Amino acid sequence: MKNKKKGLEKNLSDYGDKDFSNFIRRSFAKSMGYSNKSLDKPIVGICYTESGYNNCHRNFPEMLEAVKRGVHASGALPIVFPVISLGETFLNPTSMMYRNLMSMCVEEMILAQPMDSVILMGGCDKTVPALLMGAFSANIPSCLLVSGPMMTGRHKGERLGACTDCRRFWAKYRSNEIDKNEINLIEDKLATTSGTCAIMGTASTMAIIADVLGIMVPNTSSIPAVHSDRLRASEDTGILAANLGLNKGILPEKIVTKKSIENALRVLLAISGSTNAIIHLTAIARRIGINISLEEFNRISEETPVIVNLKPVGEGYMEDFNASGGLNSVLLELKNKLHLDTIDITGQTLKQRLKKINNSYIDRKIIFSKSKPVNKKGGLIALFGSLAPEGAILKRAAASKKLFEHKGRAVVFSSLNDLAKRIDDPNLDVKKDDILVLQNAGPSSNSGMPEAGYLPIPKKLAKKGIKDMIRISDARMSGSAFGTIILHVTPESNKLGPLAVVQNGDYIKLSVKNNSLNLLISEKEMKNRMSKISKNKKVVYERGYKSLYQKNVLPATLGCDFNFLQNKKIK
Ligand code: FES
Fold this sequence. Notes:
Blueprint: H1 18-30, H2 36-39, E1 43-48, H3 60-73, E2 77-82, H4 96-112, E3 117-122, H5 127-138, E4 142-146, E5 153-155, E6 158-160, H6 164-174, H7 180-187, H8 202-213, H9 228-246, H10 252-255, H11 258-270, H12 276-288, H13 294-302, H14 318-323, H15 327-334, H16 350-356, E7 381-385, E8 388-394, E9 405-413, H17 416-422, E10 435-438, H18 459-462, E11 470-473, E12 485-490, E13 507-511, E14 516-519, H19 523-532, H20 544-552
This protein binds FE2/S2 (inorganic) cluster (FES).
């Protein structure tokens, strides 16, 4: 080969003799049946996350065949390699805790093995950010391919989709509106096809964000998992990645810029995307050396309308979004507010992408026009105040407007265990206007920042028909959840943030108008309480990855990444 650094000759194992390293590698590759003709081609690595513990990637074998078809047709050699997979509901304590581990695995395997470009196959919530974080740190030409969303199921004539409807029906079961028999029937109907959750949850949000950033075949983020279009997108991804490998393709650092990140934030707000996406996008941006400020986020939120009407906030499902043109329709509506000179993995600018769109149909019940939006302001906002000095997040699009300006009495749970023990206690001192507070569920807690911020309404209130209350925590919330839920409070309780000193009966004030969240105690009292809490919170995990995680995880406002993985430009 003319170019010594192409294909199989990249990243040679070190035996102190490069020619020998090359000879032994080719010899071992030939044990897999490869010919010289194949081994002399550029290599497209396929970072593969199929797993028996990941239902969302069930369609990967068929997609993989299509990807390989595209790579072969374009004159490159596809080589599949596994990395760990994160199936959202199969991991303890949380998939979030393993996102950084997966990103390290992705980065190291891309850098250690010979490949000229890489296809990242993922979909379930944490897999997409982990793949992007790893590949962006490795900084080789990369192309994401997602599994695509599930189709909806049916129950008694009603459409059901994981997992907003999981929560909706579970709440009905808790309040005795439906019985055990019915909830068992619903269990069979919520997730009926392969693919990621059927609503605008974290997986769909992250796929769309990656599409806006320009790191996938344009407008393939929302194609349902079971559509033949998904297979055509897979073949196109193979072709694109092969061309990236053959022609010294564009590096992620050229695509992911301050402007493309701002475009992604704007789309996140316009689609009322998942709160988790802020954490992930922050972590992704910081791998490239770009900081996201929550103050800037609020500025963009104030001037960005919500134009997508999907569950968990609205009505439709991802299959409806795709049928309405998908992300391209959203980009057209937001055109005047986007940076149009960003480029995507195909080399085209956003302006060029928008010019090519030929969308004859938009269902205006699903994607609204910017002149008649679902909401005039963005779906998410950051809050600051004495309870969250460094910030907290509220999905205002999913919150009850009557609670936007609210002062209430705190009912405090000191941990997830405490919550589980007392939330349904008939003697719990709680009223409908109170504010539920959960402590010690942040990134460095031993629960690893679970999606527990959606605290259940206490059973005694749920039975009276109470559907929403303000709930505050340093935890996260599933992208499929809804309610007046304040999350990611930073600093977290485990890091001695003010959340740690909230007591039962304290008053808390939320003001969406002022972007504020305050604990209504005097400064003197705050200082007094803060001085009494332990300066040395015990690290629970003493060995292995969990210990590494607990010691190194950054706050939610910095993306929950590890300090030592961030781009050096950020430090
Ligand atoms: Fe995988 Fe929801 S469980 S996307």
